[in-house]
Give the backbone structure.
Amino acid sequence: NAGVTQTPKFRVLKTGQSMTLLCAQDMNHEYMYWYRQDPGMGLRLIHYSVGEGTTAKGEVPDGYNVSRLKKQNFLLGLESAAPSQTSVYFCASSTTGLDGYTFGSGTRLTVV
Amino acid sequence: AQRVTQPEKLLSVFKGAPVELKCNYSYSGSPELFWYVQYSRQRLQLLLRHISRESIKGFTADLNKGETSFHLKKPFAQEEDSAMYYCALSGPGNQFYFGTGTSLTVIP
């Protein structure tokens, strides 16, 4: 039972490059989320999805795009990376708000 | 608007001493509150949720609606409790609003 799997675990990008972070869950969860974690700022929601084919903006969506073509996958894209996007990115999934989240192990992204 | 405040960024206690990590919230509806823990270089894990009123690893948290607080407590801290702790509120659309976290260090 893998839970929530994020790939890659580490990545270094040059300013202006693009990349996609993949989140996969095998728990048949409806809800999926992307957060970024920065020192002193906690976790901030980037985008989320309440079901296959749906996406919505969170607190800090600028510079990111997402897609949920399959229920088990939630992709986070950076079209033109900026140094301000250097962060640790966490994916999470849940069935309902009462159950809490299951988190992935994170992706450490550095933009130089 | 939903908001979670953890006033302490850093907290140090001696092993065996009581520990309390503070969490205050603002929410117009009936809140669902959680504590998450992140050990060094590990993913965030659900520690406890107020709805189940459970005790995990000796930690408890009581929801005080009058003071809008959900403080995390443990009577005797252990070295393995050293970690980052996040208080979280479940809001509309099952979004979680996290506090900025408290880094707990238990001194041997």
Observations:
- The mean pLDDT of chain A is 92.
- Residues 52 and 71 of chain A are 5 Å apart (CA to CA).
- DSSP finds no helices and eleven strands in chain A.
